[in-house]
């Protein structure tokens, strides 16, 4: 987009029904407050990492009859394994038992203690809940060193993806588009993670994959907005940036609502009617879809105007 007036007396004529750019200060302030609140909450409250990132053992068991979670918790704590977490999902017959393994002097001793702890839990289930027809469906164990490495690699994956996106958008469009795209993606990821942790859900490799998926979807939505802005600019090159951005977003609003609404509805239904990890992934995608669509309209595109103002001030 060529350098042009940022404001014009004709800005409110002919671009469509909604003045999205005019609402930027309001929604920009809301987004800034939400991002700051999310970062503060994540820093103070911490992230509830799953065994993928912090290490530990997870045993999933399904009973043929309903079982009280308090009975399982009481029996598990009597084993002397330290802190043990019990999570039920679906009906009252399926549970996940989590505990941290006791470290040994070396890997061999650590593995021996871990196998002993797993044996104790399995023995407790088979003996104390024998009449409930227990079925141990899976046993997953991750060492603390492996978990720390997965966490580091996950953070690096997010960082590198944002860096590559910054370069890609700058090459495909113009330098002034890139900050808006990256800010938009960081905005979506931070808010999604903040809400996900706020409701007490665990963050594991599957959730990280869901967040990376959301980054890809949000980028696609943002690219579509940028393409329409560039196309509109070629037809209205004598109009202000505010007019061009408003017209571009108004013209593609129907497409955005249909596309995003379809994915949002699918993810919402999956979240409501599924359980376990699938439900958590669907929950993250549901939240991310909302913020991804919102940020493409109220964060990414208006950032172009901010970049133009900064460029104008730099030349002044």
Mean pLDDT level: 80
**What do we call the CATH topology of the largest domain?**
Multidrug efflux transporter AcrB transmembrane fold
Report the total helices.
10
Largest sheet: 4 strands, antiparallel
CATH architecture of the largest domain: Up-down Bundle
In N-to-C order, the SSE pattern is HHEHEEHEHHHHHH
Low-confidence stretches: none
How many angstroms does the end-to-end distance come to? 20 Å
Secondary structural class: alpha+beta
Give the strand content.
5-15%
Tally of DSSP β-strands: 4
The helix fraction, in percent, is 55-70%
Query: Could you say which overall geometry the principal axes of the C-alpha atoms support?
Result: elongated
CATH classification, class level of the largest domain: Mainly Alpha
Strand order of the largest sheet: 2-3-1-4
CATH superfamily of the largest domain: Multidrug efflux transporter AcrB transmembrane domain
From the alpha carbons, calculate the radius of gyration and give it in angstroms: 25 Å
Overall structural domain count = 2
């Amino acid at each position: 987009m060529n350098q042009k007036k940022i404001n014009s007396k004709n800005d409110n004529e002919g671009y469509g029904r909604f003045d999205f750019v005019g609402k930027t200060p309001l929604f920009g302030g809301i987004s800034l407050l939400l991002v700051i609140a999310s970062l503060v909450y994540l820093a103070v409250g911490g992230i509830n990492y799953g065994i993928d990132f912090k290490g530990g053992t997870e045993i999933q068991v399904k009973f043929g009859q309903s079982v009280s979670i308090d009975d399982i918790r009481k029996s598990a704590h009597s084993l002397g394994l330290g802190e043990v977490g019990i999570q039920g999902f679906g009906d009252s017959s399926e549970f996940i038992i989590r505990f941290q393994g006791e470290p040994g002097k070396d890997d061999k001793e650590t593995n021996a203690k871990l196998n002993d702890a797993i044996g104790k839990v399995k023995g407790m289930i088979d003996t104390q809940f024998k009449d409930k027809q227990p079925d141990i469906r899976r046993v997953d164990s991750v060492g603390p060193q492996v978990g720390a490495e997965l966490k580091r690699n996950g953070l690096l994956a997010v960082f590198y993806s944002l860096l590559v996106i910054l370069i890609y958008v700058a090459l495909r469009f113009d330098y002034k588009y890139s900050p808006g795209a990256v800010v938009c993606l960081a905005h979506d990821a931070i808010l999604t993670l903040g809400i996900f942790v706020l409701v007490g859900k665990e963050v594991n490799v599957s959730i990280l994959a869901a967040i990376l998926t959301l980054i890809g979807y949000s980028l696609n939505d943002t690219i579509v907005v940028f393409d329409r802005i560039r196309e509109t600019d070629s037809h209205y090159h004598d109009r202000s940036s505010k007019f061009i951005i408003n017209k571009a977003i108004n013209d593609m609003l129907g497409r955005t609502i249909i596309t995003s609404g379809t994915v949002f509805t699918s993810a919402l239904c999956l979240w409501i009617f599924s359980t376990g990890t699938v439900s958590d992934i669907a929950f993250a995608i549901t939240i991310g879809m909302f913020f991804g669509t919102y940020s493409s309209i109220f964060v990414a595109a208006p950032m172009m105007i901010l970049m133009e103002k900064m460029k104008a001030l730099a030349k002044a």
